[in-house]
Write a structure and sequence with these properties.
- The protein is an all-alpha fold.
- It is about 80% helix and about 0% strand.
- It contains eight helices and no strands.
- It starts with a helix and ends in a 5-residue tail after the last helix.
- This is His/Glu/Gln/Arg/opine family amino ABC transporter, permease, 3-TM region.
Amino acid sequence: MGKVLPLYYEGALLTLRVGTIGILLALAVGMVTAVARYWRIPILNTAAVIYTEFSRNTPLLVQLFFLYFGLPKVGIRISGEWCAIIGLAFLGGSYMAEALRAGLESVSTVQTESARVLGLTPFQTMMLVVLPQAFAVSVPPLVANIIFLIKEISVVSAIALPDLMYVTKDLIGNSYKTDESLILLVSAYVVLLLPISLLGYCLEKKVRYAGFGN
């Protein structure tokens, strides 16, 4: 097991790289989608609903196959790593959007009306009043979505990206050390995900202590 640890280290680095970029993009997409649905602008709201339902109801593996194997048929070639990042952002954006939208909807209309009476513009009201409280409410589902998306990266081995799952399957196929390989795989995911869970727990306590989550 000690001899193959460097392989798991490399797989973990790829998982972190794809996960970090993909999740940041997913948060950006989710924010735009959630605000579009919150403001209920007719065209944008319809587009946001279509995107959300389409994204959440198609598996990441199918999306990756479309990006990696389908697009080259029409002359568009994307590297495997960027296919994974785009697929993760596309899938994750819809989940982030729903988590953020729930937070936005939880903010009382009394507060937005009070902000407008004080002379704040709609943009200032969103940035200074609505979003801080919405984020506080959305922390638990956002952290859960981040953990879910990192675990979903395991399917990128299907497009030959050497992530943790790819390394594990390769070692099992070559050495038949199934138990040892799986133990290392589980340990690697615990090492990656446990700090995120603890950080999310601490962040949730902090925003509740500050009074945003009440």
